[in-house]
Design goal:
DNA-binding region: 40-59
Mean pLDDT: 86
Distance between the termini: 72 Å
Low-confidence stretches: 1-11
CATH topology: Tetracycline Repressor, domain 2
Protein name: TetR/AcrR family transcriptional regulator
Shape: elongated
Number of strands: 0
Domain HTH tetR-type: 17-77
InterPro entries: DesT_TetR_C, Homeodomain-like_sf, HTH-type_TetR-like_transc_reg, HTH_TetR, Tet_transcr_reg_TetR-rel_C_sf
Largest sheet: none
Helix content: over 70%
Pfam families: TetR_C_46 (PF21943), TetR_N (PF00440)
Radius of gyration: 20 Å
């Protein structure tokens, strides 16, 4: 009983923002082993030690919670793919891509469900997906935090978008079947493929 009392007491000390963040963190952790379609409100409420009603109080609806979890996961992905502050451009790009590959490998079910949801009929999930990859592409043009110094033109953006799509598809296929490639091999293929694509632009 003492343990239950301590848990309840610690819960009451959380502010609404802290509780909401705790629930989102838990939702993201569950997405590491569970697809978005299989994510259960009941399981999450039980894991968090709260009622379903309290969870709906914070997020309104089941879909509202799912969308908030996906945004939280997308923010995590963006943070984990931040390039190192120091190093040559390609070294910094390698650091960013390493973060991306490791994130996808560690969160496959949730990441795959996000990709499926983004291609489905949910406009909010599609926007989160598109905004995240646009923000990742923007890093190439940031003066202080960019990896490779690229001219910000529609043609360069087009090639970057295609390279991002190839990278995502390649990593997900590699997770299913590495085809003899090590993680380092995969990283090198991804990083080394970008500049030749850009060099082909007129």
């Amino acid at each position: 009983m003492g343990g239950v009392t301590t848990t309840t007491s610690s819960r009451t000390r959380l502010s609404p923002d802290e509780r909401r963040t705790q629930l989102l963190d838990l939702g993201v952790r569950l997405l590491a082993t569970t697809s978005l379609e299989e994510l259960s409100i009941d399981v999450l409420a039980e894991e968090a030690g709260i009622s379903r009603g309290l969870l709906y109080h914070y997020f309104g609806t089941k879909l509202g919670f799912f969308e908030a979890v996906v945004q939280h996961a997308a923010d995590d992905l963006y943070r984990q793919t931040a390039p190192p502050a120091e190093g040559e451009p390609l070294e910094r790009l390698m650091g960013s891509i390493t973060g991306y590959v490791d994130y996808v490998v560690a969160n496959q079910p949730g990441y795959r469900s996000l990709v499926r949801a983004a291609s489905g009929g949910n406009d909010t999930l599609r926007r989160i997906y598109d905004d995240t990859f646009r923000a990742l592409a923007d890093r190439f043009f940031a003066v202080d935090t960019g990896t490779i110094d690229l001219p910000d033109t529609p043609a360069v953006r087009l090639v970057l978008h295609a390279w991002q799509a190839m990278t995502e598809a390649l990593v997900l296929r590699w997770c299913d079947d590495p085809a003899g490639l090590t993680r380092d091999d995969l990283l090198r293929v991804i990083v080394d493929s970008l500049l030749p694509l850009l060099a082909a632009l007129p």
